[in-house]
Amino acid sequence: MTYLYDDPARFKDDVIGGFAAAYARYASRVPRASGFVRNGGPRKGKVSLVVGGGSGHYPSYAGIVGRGLADACVLGDVFTSPSAEQVYRVARAADGGAGVVLAFGNYAGDRLNFAAAQERLIAGGTDTRIVYVTDDIASASPEEKDKRRGIAGTATVYKIGGAAADSGYDLDGVERVMAAANAATYSYGVAFGGCTLPGRKEPLFTVADGQMEFGLGIHGEPGVRSAAWMPAADLAAELVGALLKERPSDADGRVAVIVNGLGATKYEELLVLYGHVDRLLREAGLTLVLPEVGELVTSLDMAGCSVSLTWLDDELETLWSAPVDTASFRRGDPSSFPSYEPVARADADDDPEVGEAASTPVSRQAAVTARQVLSAMNDAVVANEEQLGRIDAVAGDGDHGMGMVRGMKAALTAAQAAEHGGVGSVLRAAGDAFGDRAGGTSGILWGILLTSVGVSLGDTEAVTPERLAAAVRHGAETVQRIGKAQIGDKTLLDALFPFVTSFEGAVAQGRPVAQAWADAAAEAVRAAAATADLVARMGRARPLAERSLGTPDPGAVSMGIVLTAAAEVLKASDTCNN
Amino acid sequence: MTYLYDDPARFKDDVIGGFAAAYARYASRVPRASGFVRNGGPRKGKVSLVVGGGSGHYPSYAGIVGRGLADACVLGDVFTSPSAEQVYRVARAADGGAGVVLAFGNYAGDRLNFAAAQERLIAGGTDTRIVYVTDDIASASPEEKDKRRGIAGTATVYKIGGAAADSGYDLDGVERVMAAANAATYSYGVAFGGCTLPGRKEPLFTVADGQMEFGLGIHGEPGVRSAAWMPAADLAAELVGALLKERPSDADGRVAVIVNGLGATKYEELLVLYGHVDRLLREAGLTLVLPEVGELVTSLDMAGCSVSLTWLDDELETLWSAPVDTASFRRGDPSSFPSYEPVARADADDDPEVGEAASTPVSRQAAVTARQVLSAMNDAVVANEEQLGRIDAVAGDGDHGMGMVRGMKAALTAAQAAEHGGVGSVLRAAGDAFGDRAGGTSGILWGILLTSVGVSLGDTEAVTPERLAAAVRHGAETVQRIGKAQIGDKTLLDALFPFVTSFEGAVAQGRPVAQAWADAAAEAVRAAAATADLVARMGRARPLAERSLGTPDPGAVSMGIVLTAAAEVLKASDTCNN
């Protein structure tokens, strides 16, 4: 159980507030973002390592911000990826001009959001690389290592990357060595019991009495294989045996070892297990380098543990052994790192894309319309929540309506809160909130869509029909590029692109915006209905989708519904009736 | 639940083995003892800080051995004090010649065992001081701070003492500053759920759904006051409010703050609580110095947390802020401490009192008799287990028979394992095992009794009747002095002292040892029966005893039983029939 909280919906924010108060000696908050930047950073000429993911994994990620490790971290809600907007803001605040590496565990939501942030950072002139960690051997075969999840091996990969960045590696070098560390890192874990989210009474999963589950997830996912409880000696043999089977052919026998506890499996237990792990690895002829036994990547109060091996070469060993000084992970004397000249930090407030102060009256007027549009969209998804759930339940988990309502409500609230912003700021705030709160892939893509449109429209220029058309085109293409789905994959794109094409065409013909939008929305609704005739081609964004013939895609349907709701507002609006 | 273990009875040993394997870079095992000495120690001219207590509290105590903190730690079984013998062995191994401070939380068992070890260390020429920590404000009134238990505030007191010792303070100075730190340290905690011992299915206690208990213990004791669950903000106000009520009059407003998790109450929760604690303390005008939020003193997988404040002056602030480098607690650069020349470590093997190699044939022959005596004593307590339990159940918890059986069995096993030892080594091994395994005050005192007799008899000289009489006299007086009970307090002393007096008198009159022992044992049995007529005077060793008139003291009865069993062996033995 989780017992210490106030409003469960604000848990992440309260955690961030507590960390900021306790560990001001290590890091400070990024204004208007759920994240921290290392004290004294960013620094001139130093690559910045930005790590992140959902909350609930402390000391990952705030606890590992500091010298020799991360320059910054960005935190989502519990077990939820931070939004692309949040990643973008934190990375900008951490950028010292030598480039940024965004690092995270391999989960669909994180990949989407960090990729969207990467695009914007690159567009803004910051060379940005992505390293996602794939250490969990239980989650995919050795041939598909790239599809494996990131669990406690993230700690080693980040440590090695952080040491490289602080040692003066350039961006290519940090990216290369982190990729090498990830390729060399293998973890295997076991779950004894699930964790309980703040405010909930029941754990996310349970393990039957006397049983355990191999292949733990760190977000409340159950294991992949059940087994009867076994003594620590036998468990160690299972875990180590599986890890040694994947020993890389070029490994010379040096390994970094982590025995990680998930939360409720405590230190003495981990030490008992480590005793066996240590013996088995030595019996296999290996040399153990600075093992760590403790809690590096937790999952609230989950019961379970994992063993991680990173096969070291000279370079990786040097970096694994390098000093580090963070709130949770300290080793050696970090003053041995070269020092860098600090540079002024680009906080969100300084961001020309965000600054409310820089908005013009004409953009603020457009923002009023944008809020009305979001309000109408919200009404529409609330009215259709049950229907969307029913459609989604045919081939999915039936939560699409609920997710859209959660996202739209959050987007509307955020848009209303940004009361002095131009239209760009308002839509970015809405997209940020949508991506944060809706959950699921479609929530993330909706967040990216709203944010991209906001970035395109900006806070100064008037929203002409041509600029609006270009903005929705840009948004749709961003969603497609980040989501990696194709038209015809039975996704929201199947409604969005027909809308964009129709709207662009009508605008080019000089038709009134409201009419153009209404006609395009009708086109989207027709296209959404037509997805019933498609068989999903299992696009990369939805690797597990098995959509049945005869049922339309719920994401496409909700897209049609909200675009139609927007049309009603535009008809009544002066701004767009020119 | 505890899930990772092999044989639950060997849990402590397996933990120690795992720590030794994982953290050889910080500490190494003391041979034949459950403890660790810091690498490179002991050092010439440096006071040694030895901390210890039961297992189940990691990172206390092995995790805090290292530069700037403890020189050594000694570990008992889960939630059980280490035996006096173990404390003695570890402290000897840590002694660099400048004196030793033994530090522990204020629990009856720890006080008895550490006091017994202190006696022997002083007798052996090592100036030894004791500091026990009394930070838990829930466990006694402010007027009785000396009776309070030690919980997470131990972390601050040890940290300050360790910094003083590494900074070059002399023994008086380290003792003084640790006493000052303890006087300045106040903790208050709350429990949400009990922990589960290795191998058990049920927790040591449960907290009703929706409830919490203020005043947690760290050994599975329930709280002292139940309350309905409350949000973190309200809980922080309760905890901080109670702590601020005890602000010392001379405190200038600087405080070290620890928010400590007991095991299953995780980091993000602790950070949420810390956010409120921080705010409340600042609102009270305080200056917070290097707060720590995490797990410093755990209780297996117990759910709960505590807040500790240490009111700092210049000296305490300097020491709290000083560098430290241990497996679990690191801060700053410890190379700033003065360096000391290492001295050869006195391990148990080098101990002239222990060395089996140094035993003489005559002493080894006496050891054979000692083993036979222990075997007969074991048979006797097994035969009387139920009866002893019944007597104990009248006014106690009914476990006296079980404890005696556990202790005697362990003592016998240890005596048999010391197959090449003289009588002194055999009895010391027996006493060590008895104290470790029996549990409870009488188990500890039995351990001290056997060990003291063994120390007196040694491994070289013949066991003459006079030496035997002097040894049991020394043993009885040691038990009385350490246990702080008086004759007539309804304890095992009420049978032991009549035995000693009778035996001494008979020996002085030149009567055969076996007969003298048998008569004295009969005296002990009569005296034990007569305790039925005593009303316990609530001796300090048994502060909670309320023995009813008409029931004999179970400890005195079992003393009579085992002394009688020994008489049977002596009658048949050549060694003592001279």
From TrEMBL, chains A, B:
Residues 7-329 form the DhaK domain. SUPFAM superfamilies: DAK1/DegV-like, DhaL-like. It holds the Pfam family Dak1. Residues 368-568 form the DhaL domain. InterPro entries: DhaK_dom, DhaL_dom, DhaL_dom_sf, Dihydroxyacetone_Kinase. Residues 331-361 are annotated as: Disordered. GO terms for molecular function: kinase activity. The keyword ATP-binding applies. Keywords: ATP-binding, Kinase, Nucleotide-binding, Transferase. NCBIfam families: PRK14479.1. This is Dihydroxyacetone kinase family protein. It comes from Planosporangium thailandense. The lineage of its organism: Bacteria, Bacillati, Actinomycetota, Actinomycetes, Micromonosporales.
